[in-house]
Amino acid sequence: MENNTGVYIPSIDAKDIYLASHYYSRNDEGYNLKLKDGNYNLRKFINTLDYSLDLIELLDIYYKQYRRNDFMFTIKKHKYSTQVINLTFKYSVKEWNQMNKNTFVKFGYDYRDLEFEDCIAKNSDGDIIGVKIGEPILEINEKLSRPFVTTYVNDKNGKYITYKMKGAPKVLKTNSQLRNELYKNGFVCNGTKYCRMKRSTGSARVGKCLFINETLFKPILNFSSGAIRLEEGQEIDLAAYEGYIALPSSSIIDTLPIKPENILLIDDFDSTFEETVIETHDENGWLKTSEKECEITNTIWDGQSLMDISLFGDYTEYGMVLLRNLMFKSCCFNCNIQQWFKDNNITDISQLNGKTRATKIEDVKLITTPNSIKYLKFSTWDSWLDNLYPNFGVVKHDKKTHFFGGRLVQTHYQLINTLQMSKDEVREFLQESLDFAQMLRDRPEVVRHFIKYPDVNDVELMERPMSSKNDVVYSLMSVNDNFTKTKYYHDFLVDLLRSYYKNLKNGHVYVNGNYSTLLGNPIEMLQQAIGKFDGKSQIGIGNIHSTRFAYNQTLLASRSPHVTIGNIWLPYNTENKLIDCYVNMTDEIICLNSIGENVLQRLSGADFDSDTVMITDNKKLIRAAKRNYHLFKTPTSFVSARKIKRYYTAEQQADLDIKTSDNKIGEIVNLSQELNSLLWDRMYHGSTYDDIKDLYYDICQLDVMSGIEIDKAKKEFDIDNGKELDKLRKKYEEFLREYEENENGDLIKGKKKMPHFFSHISKQKGYYNPDKKHYCKYHTSMDYLQTIINGFKIKNSYKKDWLPFVSILDNSLFRTSGVNQKQINKIYSILKKFINERKKIYGSDSGTPKEKAEKVNILRERLIADIESETIGFSTLYRLLSSIEDKENSQIKNLLLEVLFLCGNDSFNKAIIQSRKEILQIEENGNDIEMFNIPYKITKKQVNSEMEA
């Protein structure tokens, strides 16, 4: 498949599917994805079927089935398919169903068939089947009954009568009933029958599921499940099976060929030891948490494999690749396996400690364990090898952060709010970030460096389409410093600083470090492969090996989710020549030890299937972390997954997905931050550990609950996180709620108390509610952080005489006779249409913010394609850019510049290149300027003339 891109597929809610199949004017076409003109309604195609092993196979299956290559169709460079449909289950079916912001249609009728007169639509018998609320009516319809009533309105539009809804319409089918019915019976769309295909664990958590053209279902299921053929009603670990057959659906960036004889299967190893921890277990359906000494077991290579560098193909420079295959998911680390065999005199297969089909030692290049091969839970090693796909899908590899060439990483509020820092310590921690904000304001060369523009000598500068508004500015700044004197740059800088502050207030503070992938006991794994592992740790308890940082120092690491103080990890970085010899390390990999060490629970139930930690050597954070490191013990889960009898039926699949879709991870993390803030506030006011330990236990329990939420798409548990949350909220209600005295002297509930920093975060997520919540300041690190940032003021005002944008261009080539005003008008018309449609999408009551953003993104891509098809002459372009300064074009000014860049328009690029002059540049290794303790020099350069090529 070209460019390894995905395919847009429709997303439809189950309610709409059900309604379409129950219209009184029903036909066999079912739900209709097409518009009246016969073309597909592309606004419905907001989900993506990722480039994956499944998609590669589906294309082949489709061709074999139909002998055609029309699995997808292309419109303006984008691929679409109706063979797979994403179903959501957000809405129930009611007696009266809402079709848009103010229109309700009676069950059984198609909104598109209705004709409204005075806000009422009727059928041929004169019965009311459609009602518009909130609009002025001329005459009250006496036949209208509840849930609709008439009301008198007096607002800015004057006095009028309108209909409104009082109460909720009767529910005919709940979300759960819809899921049951559609899982069992499927549905028809545009004349094609669809049945349930599968869902990924991520989709299951938000209640989504893929349905597929029924003709393609059995072949793709056979592909996903290998030789495992389930009979209807067969008993099975359904949660695991559903999770594992979805593995080939994962988005991949490439494939790597690996032969069955390349693989060596060794036994997993469990390390068991005693430690005093904060233990959580389930008892009679409820969680119990306390401090006790426990026997802990770590599976030390859970989810990881070692792979010889010769199998890495184009990925030899990376330290790991996350691979997918038939019920196989493993993080494969770059190793010198063949060198290990040679150095240990392993010359024959008989010397290996495991299973392999290899006949000569040179063939063994991938060492894995049963924990990576999920297929072994259902069938045999030989059957897995017989059904293995010839190519393994590459999901991702290790990569540098996007900040300052991978040198810096951003912290997050969950980490900062689990550190006990004074206000002065937080101010000290923020100082570099605030100094940098002032530099951004004062120095365009710092902005240019910060937004990571490629070197000014990059010949491809104007040859590639730009990817965002930022790219517009990067490009303009790269060729002409005069651009920084335009209002366009000023507006960009204001937005940039606003975004920078918003990030800081979210706890995203730049520190030296990165996100590193966890690699567990790699030398021991190599030893296990040749029968020489004795159960002892080679790297040592408390140690890690990272080439990113200097050796012999303590570092701070934090995983996401990070819920409590006991999740902070302070490992000691050590040199390890044995690891360096046999593991091809990068700065984005850390080797750690989990033999006799409770590090996996400390990192919220981490394993080695590509889990990462944010890691830094920031002294201020480490100092704060050390303060309580041995006081707050590690939260450790002993909650067992339920051994429930499940059967391979549509009803059981629906029941499992209903339970999985009720996800509480956001509520768990939010409550943990409320309780963390309460804990630090009490300690500030003199409480000892003994005073707050019960509160700490409850926060630890929330950490365990977060792990359960993440795992429940693959495992089932007896406990109910919703009830556990209610129990904890009730327990702390008197501390997390304000109470007011009424006129009788009785206490009544007031607003819910929230840490002040939540006001900023909830505004961004759309949950800000000052009427019901009091965002009060606690003595906690994140509240200190926001107070300090709110009090910071940039020096110097912005008042200036701005240059018009067009003044940075060379006007000598402009000819009035060359202006195509008709084309200019057309472009403005296209832009204004996009702005209006975007406004409608964001103004709509239906859809989540993410879904709206997806719709706008698709709209934007079509806009770019429309303008990309226009060949714009220089003089027309010059006039077009001149007119953006006109007041009536203010709303499309930024959009026009952005789209011209996104198109990679030749005329625009050439005009920009002709304006080139020398610009200030920041380069590494100098003494002119320092940003976040990194020294730079400042030079002056001009774009090379070869860029005109």
What report would you give on this structure?
This protein is an alpha+beta fold. Among the domains are: 166 residues, no CATH class; 74 residues, no CATH class; 126 residues; 70 residues; 42 residues, no CATH class. It has 28 helices and 44 strands. An eight-stranded mixed β-sheet has the order 20-29-25-26-24-28-21-27, with helices on one face. Helix 22 links the parallel strand 41 and strand 42. Helix 2 crosses helix 5 and helix 24 runs antiparallel to helix 25. The longest helix has 23 residues. The protein is globular, with a radius of gyration of 31 Å. The two termini are 31 Å apart. 38% of the residues are buried.
Poorly predicted ranges: 453-467, 945-949
**What does the radius of gyration come to?**
31 Å
Structural class by secondary-structure content: alpha+beta
Shape: globular
State the separation between the terminal residues, measured CA to CA. 31 Å
Number of helices: 28
- Major beta sheet, specifics? 8 strands, mixed
Helix content: 25-40%
Sheet with most strands: strand arrangement:
20-29-25-26-24-28-21-27
Number of strands: 44
Relative strand content = 15-25%
Mean pLDDT level: 90
Protein name: RNA dependent RNA polymerase
Organism: Blautia obeum
